[in-house]
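Researcher: Let's continue the batch. This sequence belongs to Endonuclease GajA/Old nuclease/RecF-like AAA domain-containing protein, and it's 299 residues. Same format as the previous ones, please.
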Amino acid sequence: MLLKKIHLKNFRNFGEEKFNFNPFLTIIIGENARGKTNLLEAVYLTSQSVGFRESREEELIKFAENIANIQAEYISTDSNFEFRVDFNKSDSTVRKVFSINGVKKRQYQYQEEVTKVVLFSPEQIEIMTGSPDKRRKYFNTLLSSTNYLYKKHLNNYEQALRKRNKILERFKYEQGFEDELIYWDDYLEKQAIYLVEKRQSYLDFLNKNNKIDSKSFSISYLKNVFNKKKLEEYFDLERRIKKTMIGPQKDDFQISEVDNSEKNLHRFGSRSEQRLAVFWLKFNEIKYLEQIYGYRPLL
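Model: Same format as before. Here are the structure tokens for Endonuclease GajA/Old nuclease/RecF-like AAA domain-containing protein:
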């Protein structure tokens, strides 16, 4: 599918604008603070249902406005598709409404049907240079966009983790929480098993497609296992600090360049090597999406 045009109303700094796109390559040129990145974010949002720079959703709506929308038209060999996202702001909350060809969709339905995009931005060097949560966020975003069950298990895990931490916070002052803790431990373990399995599966895909030009890469999964044995091992520490200390929320991923030996690019890679590693991830993201959906995503 190819992006033909996009219509923005009250999105970011735009009042009402329409943009047409070339089916092969579109270059966006403009002075600073004119909205180039905002336009790219609008394209990204029509696919991912969230922006890539927002800290609060109301920031997506133009200042002093309460409604906004993005309408993107895609073409395939025999059909046209209109993907639309409407924003309605009330007080400090924003409600999004998703539709395809005028038919309203739930968010997960919309994400399953919408054309996929791959974002490649300078800030993504943080996958290599940033803390483990940057890498977890990258993989969680990708896997959630291609697998609704992954997103569901991830949300379940994060919600249950917050509840378990609340129990640990109260543990010192109230009695009888052992049974409640056991319930959430069992629930979290089930969710964690699914998350770890899907993360490992994608890393296996990356390691099977480890070359880009003359360079070879590998990625290692530094798992933080959530199971009964580790829960017993960390129980006293968790009671003291009132926080869960194990689980996939503490996983990390290590990318290395493979030559005669493996070089940890997070610690020892030059900036150009780290950029090439990000390019390797993005190249394989395109290949992975094409393998699932049968067409190349928009880059």
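Researcher: Any comment?
Model: The chain has a mean pLDDT of 92.
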